[in-house]
Every structure is written in C-alpha cells, then in structure tokens.
Design brief:
The complex is a heterodimer of chains A (227) and B (656).
Chain A lengths: L7 H10 L8 E8 L5 E8 L4 H8 L3 E2 L2 E2 L3 H18 L3 E8 L4 E8 L2 H16 L12 E4 L2 E4 L6 H5 L3 H4 L6 E8 L5 E2 L5 E2 L5 E7 H5 L7 E4 L2
Parallel strand pairs in A: 1-9
Antiparallel strand pairs in A: 1-2, 2-6, 3-4, 5-6, 7-8, 8-13, 9-12, 10-13, 11-12
Helix pairs in contact in A: 1-4, 3-4
Chain B lengths: L1 H14 L17 E6 H7 L9 H10 L1 H6 L17 E8 L3 E9 L3 H12 L6 E3 L2 E6 L2 E5 L3 E9 L1 H15 L26 H6 L39 H24 L16 H6 L6 E6 H17 L4 H11 L3 E8 L3 E9 L2 H7 L21 E6 L2 H15 L7 H14 L2 H7 E24 L5 E21 L2 H13 L3 E4 L2 E4 L9 E5 L2 E5 L2 H5 L12 H9 L2 E6 H8 L5 H13 E11 L2 E10 L6 H15 L9
Antiparallel strand pairs in B: 1-2, 1-8, 2-3, 3-7, 4-5, 5-6, 6-7, 8-9, 9-10, 10-20, 11-12, 11-18, 12-13, 13-17, 14-15, 15-16, 16-17, 18-19, 19-20
Helix pairs in contact in B: 6-8, 10-11, 12-13, 19-20, 20-21
The chains are: A alpha+beta (227), B alpha+beta (656).
C-alpha cells in the first residue's frame, strides 16, 4: 500500500509545492451518490486567498530554486485532462472551469458507477502528474458495495513531506481539504470521527488541515453506512 | 603561478609607499587611467600585518600565495620584509597609443637586498636582475619590474588591437590572397579519409612564418616617440596556397608571433620610462585631479573615458563591421570625447563614501545645456513613512532633456545611411502635429517610488457557504495579508490634461473608476494597481486604501531632514533602510539567509545614492552609513565580509 502514494490529492499537493508561499488554499472534493452507484463529482482547488502571491510568482522563473510553471503550460495540461476525460466517454457532462483571476479551478462530471469514477480520478492524476514531470502510480479512492460507501485513503506522505525544506513545508500550514458526500438515503453511521453529518442527515462533511493529512495525524478515510 | 604573482602585486599595491618622494611625478598626465591609494591613511585604519587574524583574509591569502606561505608561514603578510614601507601613496596608471597599451604599478622601495628578494619571489631567480643606465630590471613573461634605488614599477605592455588588426590585414592578403575574404568563414574541414592529403603541421604553423622576422635588427623606437616604430615587413616570407586548409591557422600564429616580437622590442626599449620623472607632463600638473583629491580620500582615480571608448570602439568597429557606418561611429566617439570620470573613496569612522564625478565633453554638454532642474520636489516626503524600506526619487527636466536629446538626434540621424534622413523628416512632421510644450507640462518631472514596508493589505477572495445538505455556494470574503506596500508618486503639471488621459484610459477599458480611485483592469493584470490624484500628485500603488486616501504622516513619523536636503540638492536619490529591510527578510529563507540578513542589519543603517548635475559636471555619491563602528569603517567592512564568509560555510578547511 505504501507504494500507492501519488494520487489525485497527492499530486495537487506536490504540484502546489512549485507555488511555494501559497500558504492559503483549499481543495474541495464533492461526490453526489445515487442509490445505484451512479452520481456526479466535482473537485475544486481554490487559491484565491493567495492570489497576490501567485500573481507575483507567475512573474518569476523560479521560486526557491523550483521552476514556476508557465500559465500557458498549466492551461494546456488542464485542456488535455478535459479532452482525455471526454474522449474516454465513461464520464459524461465533463466541465472544467478555470478562473485565472481568482485562481479557482474545478473539474466536474457524471459517472455510472464508482469504478468509472476511480478511473477518471486516475486519469486526472496522470494528467496533473505531467505538470511535475512525474509518472504517478494509481489506485482506487472510493468503493460502494451493499449500501456502504467508503472513502479510501492509504497514502503515506510523511517521508515525502520530511524531505521538503522548511520553507516548502510552510505551503501546507494553512491549507485545507474539504470532502463532501451527498446521498439520497440518510447516513446511518460513519467511521471518521472528524466528519460532520448535515442537518438533513443525507450528507457528510469532513474538513481537514492538509498538513495533518500528510503527517498522518488525520485521515480522509471514512466508511459510510447508508442501510 | 601567474595568479600568485598578480596577487602579490595587488598586495604590494595595497601597502607600498615612500616618505621620500611623491610618485605622482612618475605618472604621465595623459594616462587614460590613473589611480592613487593613500596607503599612509589606510595603514592607520587597517594594519596590514594584522589582517592575518581575520579568517577570510588568512584563508584567501594562503590560497593565493601558497608558495610564499610555505616559505614563511607566520609573517608572509608583513610586507616590510620585502622592503616595502607603508607610509605614503601608491599609483597605478594605464596609457595607450595607437600601437601599444601599457601600464604600471608604482611603489616605493629603497632596499636593494630586499628588492633582490622580491624579484626572486616574483620571478623565481634573483640572478635575472640586469642593470641598465641608472636602473635595474627583471622580467618573466608578462611580469616586469624596474627599480632605481628609490622606487619600483611593476609594469606590462601589450600590442594594441588596432596594430594587431593592421598586421592581420597585411598577413591575410599574403595568406588568403583577398582582403574581401575578411568576413568569409574559413573553408570547411576536409572530408574524413582525406586528411593525409592535407599539409597540416601544428609545429610548422607556429615556427616557420615567424623565423624570418628580424626583430633584433629592426629600428628601435625612442622613449619619447614610441609610436613611430614600424613593424619589420616579414610578411613576404610566407608562401602558402590560399586553398591550403592550414592557411588560416598559420596566419593567426604568424600574427601572434609577430606581435610578441614587436612587443618584446618595445618593452626592451622602454623599460626606463616607467621610473622617469614626467615633470610638467606628470599627473601632478593635472589641476582638476589635484582639486578633486584635496580632501585626501583613501583612494581615487581619473579615467579619460573618451580615450577608452575611442580605443575600444576603434578596434571593435573595424573587426566587426569592417569599417562600415563610419559617420555615426565618429559621432558616438565625439559624444564621449573629452568625457572624464573622477572617483574617490573615503572610509570615515561611521560611514563609507564613494563618489563619481563626470566632466562632460562638448557634445554631451549639448544634451545637458538646457537642463535646468536641480532638485526633486520635497512635497512627496510627507507621504513617506520614516520606517519605509527604501525609495528612489528622480527629478527630470522633461523639456530640457527633450530638447537636448532632440538636438542630439537631429545631428546623429543624418549620418546613418539610408534611414537617417527619413527619421529626421519624421521628427519634423511630429513637431508640426504635436504640441511639445503641452507634453512637457503634463508632469513636473518629479517622481518617487517608495516601498513603504510590509503593511496589512486587504485581499478579496472567494470562500464557501454550505446549506443544510452541505450544498456549496460561493461567497466573497476579505482577509488582511502582510504585503510590501509599493507607492509611486509623480508630480502633476497640468491636471486637466492628466484627467483627460485618465478618461481616455477608462474609455479604452484599461482603467475602471471607483469614486476618486482608478483601478487598472486590463486582461491578466498580474498585480492590483490603483491610481488617484491628490495634492497635485499622481499616486499609483497596490494598497487600495492608501491610494484612495494617501496617508500624510505627522512630522515625527516622516523621514528626517537629511532627506529634505537630498531632495533639494539632487535630481536622483535612492535610499535603502537596511535595518527595515533586514527586519522583514530576517524571518525568511534558510538559516544561512537569516543569519546573513542579521549581519547586514548589524552592519549597515542605511545606504544612499544621490546624484545631480551642475554645468558641465555630473556627480554621483554612494554612502553607506554604518550601524555600530567598533573600529573604523574599513576594518568593520572587512569583518562584515568575514562574517558572511563564515556563515556561508567557507571556513571548513583550516589548512592551506
């Protein structure tokens, strides 16, 4: 399991290291799951609170010795991810939103089953991995069987995190990860003690500090029983 | 070895002197460059033999002077043992003619036995000392020494690029056969397998073309008319086929060898001039330089910039453009003609001052003659926080410079082939349609860019609200972040016309108006930029609140009166508060960076650069104000560099 590290969230995090000093950003993972396992997803990264820093950094060639990705390259890679998802055909209604003024980016779409969603995420991971010149390994992030929805999280990023310089580590100090899962049925039970159930009883929210996730003090893993 | 010799010469330059005579009389008045170091003063601030106790000096000197350190591992920096006294001034000069470039380092040295030891140290063999007329001399490659019982000169000479070019042209005709081939690349190398058929012999290319040069029997140039020397025409001895692949190599080798021969003859004939009293033709009779150094700086130099430019451009122009565009080239030469630069450095107790003065030539004076502005508006100062990180301020005489540059262009452009006259006609047409006076009066020409320090700046960003089912909706939040506050201020001359321009920019969607504030909103604008006009000043900056209502600081929060004086007497002022900058950066970066900034903060209070223009002179001053002077600014500066040297891990190896 330790080999299965660099997945979507890991890739986004590591890519952000290139934007050192971007200390305030939020990743939002949203899944709307139907009873039959189909549904829709939306992954959003919101860096608007750091836009002044990003604007400054985009004017530079490198920060802390790391090359700063060019806006044109980032746009091109996002375009490729969108094209690949559409070409694959298993994810429908694919929408990529880019807000280059506020630095908010999102990818959303519909899936027929959880396996399709996992493959889509892996495609996105590979696409974003190219931004760092890497070739990430991929694995499942979600499962849904017999009314039990599971958020898998088997990453161990401690070693990677410790290898960063103190200045790079600052990037994660105020970064947040928000996971939201919405269902048609009310949630009967869930395993992650940090998660909150909505007033409607049909949704869960989990807000974590990304640094806590990376250092394994907190986890995204959650088993949600709907029956 | 060459590096070591040069290093020792540099050390000698730093510590040598003589009570008995002022070596300034040995320096020719028409030297293109002449420098003086008041070693007597420096020695009172910086005991040279004690520098060994400073780690970076010890380490670097051991590295550079490895052999000398081995010979005397304790006192190798004690220069008295080399016959060198440290009580007066040392000089260095560079002179040039069309044929030769030469220069000398002049020091006082009055002990023959120690002179012999010094020669042995530098040359490697004291037996090589020869006697001629009233001096002794020794040489090894490019290091040449001459001594006359009182003083010594370390000197060197090279053949000038112009002379080398001339020889090259002559030999090119002999070797290649056609001067037009000058810019043609050499023939391609032979195909693989045909090398045996090519007459190519590296040894032959060096030796054969040079042997016929009869340098020893050539006419020897006189000391007073050394430019009259004519190289012996040995080029008729070369008989190579233009098609021979080695022809180029042979030609270049021949040029180099011939240059060496000519140089050797010149050097042999002119050794004596370096210790000859120049009398009325010495630097001592340069009144302007004497006035410039009357306050006894620690070091100073004078540079005939025009001569340097002429020599440099003459060579480059010919070799790169083959003499094309002669007229504009001459014009540019004229621009620098008569331009002389003076510089001096003074290490006082609490500050270090370096100043540069430029005396313009007649052509350059034409640009400046209508420039009347002598100061920067002091109205900006009330908007500048005394705790700012730094600023630069400029006062430009827009009309004066425009007219001067206009004269300049109208004179220069016609000399440019083809397009020059067209450009002048275009300028004439523009003159007809443009109201130049209106443009000149648009702004006053005064401007300041200030970094007011790291201040709270509002950042509007997007965050999220969630309903009862955790459905997400966007909302706008405002947070305060610490950012460097940048503020640009420009004096407005005609506010009505400036407002017209702002309205035009609004119509072009470059600006957006919010009350009395203008926001720059062109596509992909990388940083927030706000504009406003208050008190006859155009404010531009990144702090929306401050630009909307610029803060007027109370008197006790403003910069002190020294800045008022700087603005009143200069047309350019740059200021950096090292303490305030270090306070910000000391929290950033690696441990090394932080420690380095702590050293900077501990060493410097502030750094100022200011310059102005008066008549046919321009003057620039660079002053570093020190925080705490333990000894004197010179020693403190060395200790500061030593601290950085240690912080940066260069103190690991304590061996040689």
């Amino acid at each position: 399991m330790k080999k299965h590290l660099h997945k979507l969230n890991a890739l986004i995090i590591i890519t952000l290291v290139a934007f050192t000093c971007v200390s305030c950003f939020e990743i939002v993972e949203e899944i709307n799951l139907n009873d039959d396992g189909s549904g829709s997803f939306c992954f959003t990264i919101n860096m608007s609170q750091s836009k002044l820093n990003i604007n400054s950094m985009l004017l530079l060639d490198s920060v802390n010795g790391r090359p700063v990705p060019k806006k044109e390259n980032l746009k091109a890679e996002l375009g490729k991810v969108e094209a690949k998802l559409k070409e694959d055909g298993r994810i429908t209604n694919v929408i990529v939103k880019e807000n280059w003024e506020a630095y908010i980016f999102s990818i959303s779409g519909n899936f027929n089953n959880i396996e399709t969603l996992n493959k889509a995420i892996n495609n996105i991971s590979v696409g974003l991995g190219k931004l760092k010149g890497g070739s990430p390994q991929v694995a499942d992030n979600f499962s849904y069987h017999d009314g039990i929805f599971t958020r898998l999280y088997n990453y161990n990023l401690v070693k990677d995190y410790n290898s960063l310089t103190e200045k790079d580590k600052v990037v994660f100090n105020n970064a947040k990860y928000t996971a939201i899962y919405r269902f048609n049925l009310p949630v009967k039970s869930f395993s992650n003690v940090d998660a909150l159930k909505s007033k409607s009883g049909k949704a869960l929210m989990l807000k974590l500090n990304i640094k806590d996730m990376i250092t394994n003090h907190k986890t995204l893993a959650n088993t949600i029983n709907l029956k | 070895m060459k590096l070591k010799l040069l290093s020792l010469i540099a050390l000698l330059f730093s510590v040598t002197m003589s009570r008995a005579q002022d070596l300034i009389n040995l320096v020719p008045k028409d030297a293109a460059f002449a420098a003086v170091l008041d070693l007597n003063q420096i020695n009172t601030k910086l005991k040279f033999e004690e520098l060994i106790n400073i780690r970076c000096i010890e380490k670097m000197s051991k590295t550079m002077l490895k052999d000398i350190v081995k010979a005397d591992s304790v006192n190798y920096l004690n220069l008295n043992k080399y016959g060198i006294q440290v009580n007066s001034k040392a000089y260095f000069y560079f002179k040039s003619s069309d044929k030769m470039y030469y220069g000398a380092l002049l020091i006082a040295l009055n002990d023959e036995a120690k002179f012999a030891k010094l020669v042995k140290l530098l040359i490697g063999d004291e037996q090589n000392i020869a006697t001629k007329e009233n001096y002794k001399y020794a040489a090894k490659k490019d290091i040449k020494i001459v001594w006359n019982n009182k003083s010594a000169a370390f000197w060197s000479a090279i053949i000038s690029p112009a002379q080398k070019d001339s020889l090259q042209v002559t030999l090119r005709v002999k070797f290649i056969g056609d001067e037009k081939n000058y810019l043609t690349p050499p023939p391609p190398p032979p195909a693989f397998g045909t090398l045996d058929s090519i007459k190519y012999d590296a040894n032959e290319t060096v030796v054969e073309p040079v042997e016929p040069v009869q340098v020893e029997t050539s006419p020897i140039p006189s000391e007073t008319n050394n430019d009259s020397y004519v190289a012996p025409d040995s080029t008729n001895n070369y008989n190579y086929s233009p098609n021979d692949y080695s022809a180029y190599d042979q030609m270049y080798a021949a040029v180099d060898s011939l240059c060496d021969s000519i140089k050797n003859v010149w050097c042999t004939s002119n050794t004596g001039i370096f210790l000859k009293d120049k009398g009325v033709n010495s630097l001592a009779s340069n009144k302007e330089f004497a006035d410039y150094i009357k306050n006894s700086p620690d070091g100073a130099f004078v540079l005939d910039y025009g001569m340097f430019t002429k020599l440099y451009m003459n060579s480059i122009w010919k070799s790169t453009l083959g003499g094309a565009m002669t007229d504009p080239y001459k014009f540019i030469q004229d621009i620098y003609g008569g331009l002389t630069m003076y510089a001096k450095a003074e290490f006082k107790k609490d500050d270090i001052g370096i100043s540069f003065d430029v005396k313009y030539g007649s052509k350059l004076n034409e640009i400046y003659k209508e420039v009347k502005k002598k100061k920067i508006s002091t109205n900006f100062l009330k908007y500048m926080d005394k705790d700012l990180m730094g600023y630069y301020a400029v006062g430009i005489d827009i009309a004066g410079y425009s007219k001067g540059i206009g004269h300049f262009l109208r004179e220069l452009l016609p000399s440019i082939p083809q397009y020059g006259d067209v450009a002048v006609s275009a300028m004439d047409v523009i003159d007809i349609f443009i109201d130049e006076q209106a443009i000149y009066k648009l702004f006053t020409g005064d401007m300041v860019l200030a970094v007011n320090g790291v201040k709270p700046i509002e950042v509007v960003h997007t965050s999220y609200n969630y309903d009862d089912n955790y459905n997400r909706t966007e909302k706008t939040d405002t947070t305060t972040q610490m950012q460097p506050e940048i503020q640009f201020m420009m004096g407005v001359g005609n506010i009505t016309d400036v407002n017209k321009i702002l309205k035009l920019l609004i119509n072009l969607k470059v600006l957006r108006q919010e009350g009395n504030l203008y926001c720059v909103e062109y596509n992909n604008n990388p940083l927030p930029v706000y504009i406003s006009i208050h008190d006859g000043i155009l404010f531009i900056g990144n702090n929306k609140a401050n630009i909307a209502n610029p803060v007027v600081y109370p008197k006790d929060k403003q910069l002190d009166d020294e800045h008022m004086k700087l603005f009143s007497k200069n047309t350019f002022v740059a200021y950096a508060s090292m303490n305030n900058i270090a306070k910000y950066f000391v929290k950033e970066g690696s441990d090394k960076t932080q420690r380095s900034f702590m050293e900077v903060a501990g060493m410097f209070t502030n750094i100022k650069i200011y310059s102005g223009h008066k008549g046919d002179h321009g003057s620039t001053n660079f002053v570093m104000k020190l925080t705490n002077t333990e000894d004197n600014s010179m020693l403190d500066l060395i200790k500061f560099f030593n601290a950085l040297y240690i912080i940066n891990g260069n103190d690991q190896d304590r061996g040689i």
